[in-house]
Amino acid sequence: MFIRLALKSLLNRKGSVLLTLMAMTVSIFVLLGVEHIRNQAQDSFNSTVSGVDLIVGARTGGLNLLLYSVFRIGSPTNNISWDSFQKIAHQPKVAWAIPVSLGDSHKGYRVMGTTAAYFKHFSYANQHKLDFAKGKAFSDIFDVVLGSEVAKQLGYSLGDKVILAHGIAKTSFSMHDDKPFRVVGILSATGTPVDQTLHVSLQGIEAIHIDWQHGVKLAKSTVTPEQLKQLTLEPKNITAFMLGLKSRLAVFSVQRNINNFSAEPLTAILPGVALSELWQMMGMLENTLRLISVLILLSALLGLSAMMLASIRERRHEVQLLRVIGAPPIFIFLMIELEALLICLLSTGLATALLYLSLVIASDFLTSGFGLHISINILSGNNILLILIVISLTILAAAIPSLSAYKNAKKDGIH
After folding, report:
1. Domain span at residue 364?
2. Is residue 207 a contact partner of residue 142, using CB atoms and an 8 Å limit?
3. What proportion of the chain, given as a percentage, has pLDDT over 70?
4. CB of 65 within 8 A of CB of 55?
């Protein structure tokens, strides 16, 4: 009876209640959405690379090294000689090494030269290895393995020809069109920059630049693709490399040795530490989004309180009637609170359903556009806590009109 009476009272004022319900739904949707996407983005960000103990590049800042070696953003200050890579890779404490050579692109996507060790040892998220959705790893000089997004957006399949461009500009007029690559593999989606990368062998990188000098293609090609396959193409330098150690206890000693490497100036970073530093730089954006969502919620709660307070005068006869039939003032107080709580619960349900539907619809866009795999499980620990906080704030916001109704009931009722 108590709940039925509150529902009938809300339906009697359906116009103002509907507007308040919409405002509350939008505010809760924004609050839950921002928190859920923030948590998922942080998890996706931190899982970009896993199982790599050290990333090594030319002497530079740690964040810059992380950006160009892992996220394919920016360019290195210098390259690393192949001899230095070989010396470090064959140290007793090193279990495996993955060389990385950058500098070319294809229709805006970065090309990465590497070795078969990349597909064997590189992992992301919680030690997840790279899987092939189709095909296999490269074995020939002119084989290319595509990230899932590259294949999807450009419509490539196994056997297709791919012509690489010199440089990283989205539109390039310096093409390696005399040495096309053939798609032999397409990786499964990872939600990391791997999805937006074309992977070729280091020999392939050397082969397409054999007729280039100082970034300029020679007027006449002197070596055919067939002749290149007979050559031993060893790179002179690479962009960076990743290391896996035999023991995690040796990380700091190996890092110190690399930072003090005598042959050339190098920088070795711990990817987990660098990822945390990079995420902290975005703390201002996080706090701004949180502040905006909280302000939206507070404005909706104030609107709820104002709507219910304005309705107290209109409900004067209703309150008097309840007092006549014996309802105590505390009954009136609790009924107003219950009405606010019902609005809050209904708004939360609508916001949760709307957020779930939005994530289902937008999941492909978030993956392709931002590389984010957003889980549709929105009832995480943080969001449940937020819902409880919203309910508590709603009860507090409804206290003002509830107290007003309580006082009126004491004045006008029968004692």
Report:
1. 2-45+282-412
2. yes
3. 83
4. yes
